[in-house]
Here is the input.
Amino acid sequence: MSTPAPFGERLTEAADRLGPLCVGIDPHPGLLASWGLGDDVAGLREFSLRAVQALYGAVGIVKPQSAFFERFGSAGVAVLEEVIAASRAAGLLCIVDAKRGDIGSTMDGYAAAYLTEGSSLAGDAVTLSPYLGAGSLQTAFETARANGRGVFLLTITSNPEGAQVQHARDGEGVPVAASIARAAAEQNRAERSTGAELGSVGLVVGATIGSAATDLGVDLAGAGGPLLAPGLGAQGGRPEDLAAVFAGATRAVVPTSSRGVLSAGADKEALAAAARSLNAMLRPLRTGSGRPAKA
Here is the structure.
């Protein structure tokens, strides 16, 4: 089995071709109910696979949230494996939102599960927590690189509690978030030296953080990887705010919406239309200077 092209390269191509929007596949109990589905494994499976089918051709990137599958135990994880396989078979890039992070052999296990070609849990990328030290993720970086996968490091999140760690400064006055961005830049250096626009180590930066990146001196553009930006729609993020939040790095932004799209309902055409509409608003980000349209 051949190794896929580097994730950063594949993400750039998908965003240029279909637009930058990533739709989160988040089977909230409320969404299952609104689709007329039961809050059970059967409903989970119907919801998730129907979403994948509807989103094919409307977007190039999806992001299943592992927690909403794990709550059903092994049967739910089996559905997640189906969703990952269906997404990849359809040509959708699949970011598994698992937020894993640990040390030593435990991190080795997570890397094997989420980043190794042939693993049923391996999408095209996975979200990771670097708060045991970015160096603890070295196995994940190496495994991702060897398998054409990507990783996204939690960097500046929108939840108020995140500031306790992410905004804290070390003895030299460098914010933790800035250190994470620098670690990503180091990992991306070799890939970008070949001419790639983006490396495969990205950052998670909330769409609703306002001026936090600028205030903290976090060099989002200098990180050299994609910027996964959750929070559009139900969490209060607006397309028209992204140009300011990600000033100088908008081409790298992968805006994410889950409920904002999925609330369109179970009808596949309506769901696809909602995704296409939001994606069209976000396309100006790809120019590097354009401002998304107002919703």
About this structure: The chain has one domain: 7-162+196-209+225-283.
